[in-house]
Write a structure and sequence with these properties.
- This protein is an alpha+beta fold.
- Helix content is about 35%, strand content about 30%.
- The chain is built from three helices and nine strands.
- The strands form three sheets. It has a four-stranded antiparallel sheet.
- The N and C termini lie far apart (about 40 Å).
Length: about 180
């Protein structure tokens, strides 16, 4: 009976796997896309739940992060580039509930870093750790601003991709 259950289990997942494989082949996003992963700095002793990563290309800094992100592109309402005294920064506005999560995480973890990963562009996409801002205070209003380790052109593509994902997600939510 054990082999029957195992075989039935595998047969059940074959169509699901085929759907996923073929689904990925025919679905092509229209317009730019981007991915965003924001992780919270973690203690190095969190075996299996953390990983060490290197942030900043010119003067790399090692940071231990929680493996699971606290925010992703699925949580983004809008993104934009803003001008700063030294150049530019990326401003990301999150949906209400994820924004409250950002506020809670920042309020309970002062002195730790938020570590930001971005993926953008076309074939092949560019992806890297963009920033690791120190949490100095509670981040309210669901808005995170950071200075990326990237060119303005790269961040223009990144912001356009995040906004395209946000528009698609808003369209999906409005149909539900």
């Amino acid at each position: 009976t054990m082999s029957f259950c195992r075989r039935g289990f595998n047969l059940f997942f074959v169509p699901v796997a085929l759907l996923l494989v073929t689904g990925c082949a025919w679905w092509k996003p229209d317009g730019p896309v981007a991915q965003l992963r924001i992780h919270l700095e973690s203690d190095a002793g969190s075996a299996g739940h953390s990983q060490a990563i290197s942030v900043m290309r010119s003067q790399p800094v090692l940071v231990n992060i929680a493996r699971d992100p606290i925010l992703t592109e699925a949580d983004v309402l809008a993104a934009r580039l803003i001008e700063t005294a030294g150049g530019f920064a990326v401003e990301v506005k999150f949906d209400e509930i994820p924004g409250l999560g950002l506020e809670e995480n920042s309020a309970t973890n002062p002195g730790k870093h938020l570590v930001i990963f971005g993926l953008w562009g076309e074939k092949p996409p560019v992806g890297r750790w963009l920033a690791a801002p120190l949490i100095a205070r509670r981040i309210g209003g669901g808005v995170l601003t950071f200075t990326p380790d990237a060119s303005r052109e790269e961040m223009e593509q990144f912001v356009a991709g995040l906004n395209a994902v946000a528009r698609r997600n808003a369209g999906i939510k409005s149909k539900q």
